[in-house]
Structure prediction request, 217 residues.
Amino acid sequence: MSARTDIPELLRVYLVTDRRNHGGRSVADTVAAAVEGGATIVQLRDPDATGLDLFRLGEELRDLLAGTGVPLVIDDRLDVALAVGADGVHLGQTDLPVVQARAVAGADLMIGLSTTNPAQVHQAISLPKGTVDYLGVGPIWATTTKADAKPPIGVEGLAASMAAAGGALPCVAIGGITLDNAHEVAATGAGAAVVSAICGAPDARAATETLARIMAS
Prediction:
């Protein structure tokens, strides 16, 4: 698998959906507004959804994003990602192992892997080249959008994981990132994955525009 040189830029403003926190909007409406505001990638995350519901929403978002250049990633569910024709899947440490996921998915699907510490980063970069395309790192700060989130690692922990990655894999930070602290993430060179900062904002487009400016600074 050839390396995708555009992935670091794609990770800059990484929207993660949360249907429980969209300020009265539909998930699709929030995604559309965020893309207009500068979101560079969208992850469909809904751990409570049935496979069928996730598939149907995935199809809706796939069609919405068609032609925008903004990739759609499905959280946890490789089967749904493949069935929908999404651009990628994001897997956690207790999900399907990424080596097996790559074997099933083939070379073209983007695969992200969540990590919490440098040891997990080292393990990821030791895998065969092309197994993983990018790393999620966090939680950076405390978050209420993921019930089983690990203790926060802080910006120091993010920097340690970035150093462990050594540029071998691009990283996106997640967990408690807001418009007030995103500049600390931007300073490390990582992308910013956000949920509430966009989904819970009264104006999702304006919030995304602000985040995009911060991440570009």
User: Anything to note?
Assistant: The radius of gyration is 16 Å. The beta strands are 13-16, 41-44, 72-75, 88-91, 110-115, 134-137, 171-174, 191-194.
